[in-house]
Write a structure and sequence with these properties.
163 residues, alpha+beta, 6-stranded mixed sheet, 4 helices, 33% helix
């Protein structure tokens, strides 16, 4: 469902996605468990959005799906087939900024802000994206590009790689 007034896109979170996020998160304790759980939900929401647009992803090849990377880093990437990594950052409701940790400031084709529904865990809202990270690692949500522009950004990268 698209919200045309704010250029966001809402993606339903299904039971399989919740189960996968719980499975990953249950391997850790405390803040790390919550981080991995939120990161996984954000990645799965963006994966669902892109697959719906017939943009090929390689979820299994993403660092966010590897327990070694989960332990060592705050990573929430989604591999876009033959193009690179798209970082899918979870954002809590009422947040004004999306936080991007230093370990993912490079080797990314973009950063998507994903607001998670903390009450019912039934949906995630893709708030927008950016291709740049500030030195603070925080990007104001108001400065994100519309999520509707993400497919064109991905296509532009594809064209650049082809030429």
């Amino acid at each position: 469902m698209t919200d045309s007034t704010s250029s966001t896109f809402t993606v339903p979170i299904d039971i399989a996605d919740l189960d996968r996020a719980r499975q990953f998160g249950s391997q850790y304790h405390g803040a790390k468990a919550e981080q991995v759980y939120h990161n996984t939900l954000a990645v799965l929401a963006v994966d669902s959005f892109l697959r719906g647009l017939e943009i090929e992803t390689a979820l299994a090849a993403s660092e966010s799906q590897d327990t070694v990377y989960q332990v060592l880093m705050d990573v929430s990437d989604l591999e876009i087939s033959d193009l690179g990594k798209l970082e899918c950052r979870p954002v809590l409701p009422q947040a004004d900024v999306v936080s991007i940790p230093p370990e993912v400031w490079t080797e990314r084709i973009g950063y998507v802000a994903v607001q998670l529904d903390l009450n019912l865990w039934q949906e995630a809202t893709l708030l927008g994206f950016t291709t740049e990270v500030t030195e603070s690692g925080e990007v104001p949500i108001a400065q994100l590009q519309a999520i509707a522009e993400l497919p064109a950004h991905i296509q532009q990268i594809r064209q650049t790689k082809l030429s």
